[in-house]
Amino acid sequence: MNTHSLVYLLGTVALLAGGCNRSETSAPPPPPTSQSEATTASPASLPLGHPPLDFGQAALPAGHPPLDMSSETLPAEAKAAVGTPQWTVPESWTAGAASSMRVATFNVAGESEQSAEIAVSAFPGDVGGALANINRWRGQLGLGPIKPEDVAGISSPVEAGDIKGTVVNIDAGAKRMLVATMPHAGNSWFFKMTGDAPLVEAQKANFLEFVKSVTF
């Protein structure tokens, strides 16, 4: 092979090598993962026909099964859209801070820095039923669940006008809770007093009168 042919061959090889290198370095990068892809569960991990779960959204997707209301706390979106009923507030109670989960809040103070809080809330339906509600409240006081046959022993009737409700007494020693439940217009209304046990006992009569004064 003469010198001219050798130079031509080496030039051809260099040109081909340079073309390969350019094709490797200029290949477009894979498309970045979008925010929606990063926050949406993989369809393979969901039941057949289940809509994708967008964890960036607070609301549940359409068709999602009902929330488990037996948990210790309820999500804000579970609250019923209701107005404020009429009632008579005891003179010793003061209005408390507003809350997205409550219709109203009141506070009462006692001796030796004792305190109690009265919370009024409303939720659609029966919110899991009496037993689930009681066990959720017991969990808020650090107590374990009870059995269905134990519900009657801590419950008593209460009436507000023509509405018949139930008052549940939950005693955790130093802390105590009284909860009155009343059904109205497809919702469950809860009037809950929680605080130091001696003060809750001292305010029990006021609490019951408050509940009985409610008109929707």
Can you walk me through this structure?
It is built from 5 helices and 7 strands, in the order H-H-E-E-E-H-E-E-E-E-H-H. The chain has 216 residues and is α+β, with helices and mostly antiparallel strands. The protein has 2 domains: 1-59; 66-212, Protein Transport Mog1p, Chain A (3-Layer(aba) Sandwich), CATH 3.40.1000. Strands 1-2-3-7-6-5-4 form a 7-stranded antiparallel β-sheet. The longest helix is centred in the first third of the chain and has 23 residues, at 3-25. It is globular. The N and C termini lie far apart (107 Å).
Q: Which class do the helix and strand fractions yield?
A: alpha+beta
Number of helices: 5
Helical content band: 25-40%
In total, the number of domains comes to 2
From the alpha-carbon coordinates, what is the Rg to the nearest angstrom?
32 Å
* Ends distance: 107 Å
Shape: globular
The whole-number mean of residue pLDDT values reads 77
CATH topology of the largest domain: Protein Transport Mog1p, Chain A
